[in-house]
Amino acid sequence: ANPMLRKVLQMSVHWLSETSMADAKTAIFLGPVSEDVLHTECKKYPKGVLWITSSGTNGGASPPNIKVIQSSSDRETIREATQEILLAEYNHQPEVKVSKRTEENPSNPYPAILSLILAETDSTLRSRKSREEGGHQRQRHVFMNLSGYLRGRVPEEWRDLANGSLAVVVGAGPSLDETLPLIKEGFPRPWVIAADSSLRALRSEGVIPDFVVSIDSEKTFLSCSEPDHSPGVAVLSSQSHESWAKEWGARSCFLSGRVLTEDWLAEKGISKTKLQAVNNAGLTALLFADFLGPGTIIMTGMDLSGGGSGQLRYADSTERGHIQIQTNLYHKIPGNFEPSVPTPFLSDWEETSVLVKEISQRRMIINLNDRGALLDGAVVIHPKDIDELRSVIDQNLTPFEATTHAILEKRRSLQGHGMHQLLTLLATRCDQVWKGFPEKGYNSMIDYLKNLLADRDLANLIGDFAFTVLPKIAPESTMDEEELKKALNQLQELAWRLEDAIMECDPNDEFVVRFLTEKFC
């Protein structure tokens, strides 16, 4: 958690508490505030103020930069309003100020609202920090996976492959130590869809997954498995660490997702897969299981709650049990066997619960668990009731036939004239990057970047990298010379990676000769 966000100062005759943020240009006020204080305070925050109050606008004219919502508004309204103020200023956090007069309200809704605002702000800032720190890395993986994405996306023919059968989704939460041994026998042969972090646990129990899902750009194959263990089909995103596609080779396939370069490709006619990667490997594995259309889905190791006091993330059998989540903020959410359980994964739990509820309307979802967070729509089965579960499943579902594996060789692929057109366009964009590439001089380097990224089409192609750099070269932002040189070096590497990707797409001889000897722009 951001320590500055937790720094609450007891001060001011008007405010019960306020956060202190250097160079803040936005703010959020909670509770009744007098008209003169409101106008004075709003002048400090030129990019906007969100005021959450039960007292209205004091009857006077509101400052032009303020948005007012009622403290009785539902959580989603408050969340959306908070996101609006966060979007108003990318580079600086808003200050959050709580009026002393909130204590006058007998029901006092403001502590719960403050908690929501701090959680939403914290989540957004983490996401921004991650994007800023990893933008180049993610874009690098996109280009390293580009050939695989273009020639090996998940086909629609795989939809409903598991019709009438059982699917088991394997997460890596602490409960997996107790539940994984129970799925090895007593069930009709299931389709096993595993999150990447569960691979070592599966191997130790002798369970061979049919699909392994990995979508994290920072998670390597060797951090989850052993050099000789790459079972089934790897289901990846274009941002997955390149080690996964390298390990699985032709047995890998790609899902589309929330990736700017994929949006660029879609504009050029390379449509995204209907099933898309989202958020994390466990949630994507659940979506993929639903895509296969089984009669029932059993989830194991899908705790969505930190073990211990909230800090434990992985089962010991994954050999990642030593990895802990360190945060000052744990959220209390409903538990499967306790009124509440702690979690640092609030957004993951909310998104998973919504998805489980949706899927449960078309097929049964069973959460085999002895702990963890309650997921709306899932039937919770304790491991002690495993025999009863086996009996019900055996009577209602059939094992899948091994012959269906032949269809798993199919891929959605761009070929022929369409591939040639795309590669020509990509080559043109590479030449655009190299044209006038500056060697030195601050002004020439900053002007080059500004002019290059002003081209919306090119900026979308280099996606996350452009998203990271653009705020730094905006008129109000300053980028020192070292940062600028680093950005240009990263751009240079990305151009080389894109050129490699073009050659990996196996273009025809005529294109190769032109690519190696001519410029496309």
Explain how this protein is built.
The protein is 39% helix and 13% strand. It is built from 17 helices and 16 strands. Helix 5 (176-179) links the parallel strand 7 and strand 8 (191-195). Helix 3 (110-144) packs across helix 15.
Give a quick rundown of the structure.
The chain is of the alpha/beta class.
Structural Rg: 26 Å
What is the count of β-strands?
16
**Uncertain residue segments:** 1-11
Largest sheet: 8 strands, parallel
Give the oligomeric state of the chains in this entry, treating copies of one chain as homo and distinct chains as hetero. Answer: single chain
Structural class comes to alpha/beta
Mean pLDDT equals 87
> What separation lies between the terminal Cα atoms?
47 Å
Helical content, roughly?
Answer: 25-40%
Q: Rough shape?
A: flat
- Order of strands, main sheet, comes to 11-10-9-8-7-12-15-16
Annotation field: number of helices: 17
Write the layout of secondary structure elements.
Blueprint: E1 8-9, E2 15-19, E3 27-30, H1 35-42, E4 49-53, E5 66-70, H2 75-88, E6 95-99, H3 110-144, H4 146-151, E7 166-170, H5 176-179, E8 191-195, H6 199-205, E9 211-214, E10 233-237, H7 242-248, E11 252-255, H8 260-267, H9 281-291, E12 296-300, E13 331-333, E14 341-343, H10 346-359, E15 364-368, E16 379-381, H11 386-396, H12 416-434, H13 442-453, H14 456-461, H15 463-469, H16 481-504, H17 509-517
Parallel strand pairs: 3-4, 3-6, 4-5, 7-8, 7-12, 8-9, 9-10, 10-11, 12-15, 15-16
Antiparallel strand pairs: 1-2, 2-6, 13-14
Helix pairs in contact: 2-3, 3-15, 3-16, 9-10, 12-16, 13-16
